[in-house]
Amino acid sequence: MIRRLLRSGRGERGYTLVEMLTVMVILGVVMGALTTVFVSASHNELDMNNRFRAQQNARLALDKFRRDVHCARSVTLGSATTPAGPLAARSVTIALPAGCRNSGTVTWCTQGSGNRWGLYRVVGIVGSGSCSGGVKYADYFTLPNVFNYTAPAAGSHLLPKINVDFPVNVKPTRPASTYELKDDVVVRNVSRA
């Protein structure tokens, strides 16, 4: 009986070391490729989420800005800064009458440096080019000068308007990814000329 067991044990073959190493190398190459695909997909999803969030914040900021301007009784444009953009100023101060939700003075301004500027809403008049004390509504603007004021021509019955241009880009090294939000917001609560 022992001899029979020894003979049957000798007849069974296992995997050789070379076969095991070959299988492990092939498995390692396949797993490495799959890991690269998953990491790349994860990075792309994060980039897409950041771009979506920045664009959504810019749309919400424009909506809040539009509500402020529609209720304004007067508008004062701030000064421009470098780098210059297509528009004239980096801040606009709006006087809101008592009938609005928030009466008083509100200043919308950009603050930052280089290719990254944030849009702030400050209650009160901004001095010395700083938006300190304000609430940040949007980020990742590529230019500081995002406001312009268009007064109606003399003798016309048109209302003045503020032109806005919000260029949003999470990665300014890729200019093709810039999301640009442009609008002309009419100042409705002023007397016509």
Global structural class: alpha+beta
User: SSE order in H/E notation?
Assistant: HHEEEEEEEE
Calculate the terminal CA-CA distance, rounded to whole Å: 117 Å
Q: Characterize the biggest β-sheet.
A: 5 strands, antiparallel
Radius of gyration: 31 Å
For the secondary structure, the number of strands is 8
Q: Which spans of ≥5 residues are poorly predicted at pLDDT below 50?
A: none
Q: Residue-averaged pLDDT, rounded?
A: 85
Quick rundown:
With 193 residues, this protein is α+β, with helices and mostly antiparallel strands. It has one domain (39-186).
Model description:
The protein has 193 residues and is an alpha+beta fold. Helices cover 34% and strands 28% of the residues. It has one domain (39-186). The chain is built from two helices and eight strands, in the order H-H-E-E-E-E-E-E-E-E. The strands form two sheets. Strands 1-2-3-4-5 form a five-stranded antiparallel sheet, with helices on one face. It has a three-stranded antiparallel sheet with strand order 6-7-8, with helices on one face. It is rod-shaped and about 115 Å long. It starts with a helix and ends in a 7-residue tail after the last strand. The mean pLDDT is 85.
